[in-house]
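Ligand: adenosine-5'-triphosphate. Inputs:
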Amino acid sequence: MKAIHATKIQKIYHRPSDSLEVLTGVDLQVTQGEVVLVKGRSGTGKTTLLKIIGCMEPPTSGILHILGTDTSKLTLEELTQLRAKYFGFIFQSFNLLPALTVLENIELPLAIRGVKRAPRKEESELVLDQFQLRHLAQRLPEELSTGQIQRVAVMRALVGKAPILIADEPAANLDQENAISLFSMLREVNDTRQTTIVLCSQKNLANSYADTIYRIENGRLVT
Ligand SMILES: Nc1ncnc2c1ncn2[C@@H]1O[C@H](COP(=O)(O)OP(=O)(O)OP(=O)(O)O)[C@@H](O)[C@H]1O
Ligand SMILES: [Mg+2]
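Predicted complex:
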């Protein structure tokens, strides 16, 4: 069974004056434990594709199976559950919630899954311990350095042990050293947990961390 099996994915954005066909027919198969890197110029549809794969946005047409589940057959509520169970997300701007502490931010994906307060806290503290960052638990995001924010975003993506990680330009705002540290963390998670990772990054140093590299050209993936 493939982690991700996408066939003829098309995405058209309709706007008041015109419409834009960003993805014209993406075919993508990702095996479990594979690290896939998607490249392509700005505006070619990388974020659009990651949103569709991560079930945050429906395709205009095409078929998407996630770990054997045909996502087109699911209700909105079932999609939300699938997202919470199967995916961890890391975004370019990291999207920590500013009013929540580090610990509460890490707990979020578990809260969405309906995990009760005590086990939620316990699991999140465990991840903080693994990263040796327990001392940051009660801090707010504004009290962190960029490198620390980046690690919290990674911990939040990992806490639920989701089988698939989606990372959209996770190193865009990082200097060389923090970028290398982020990609190494992702590779380690991939090695130890057989996690499937789909990421896009313009940084050349991401290339060496991927098993397969695709480019988006004319709305399709090419190798
Ligand atoms: N919600 C939307 N409505 C209309 N057009 C959109 C929407 N989201 C994205 N687009 C357009 O679709 C195209 C692809 O956008 P997308 O964000 O997927 O590109 P990208 O490859 O991630 O670019 P970047 O490298 O700059 O992040 C762009 O032309 C963008 O303006
Ligand atoms: Mg983008």
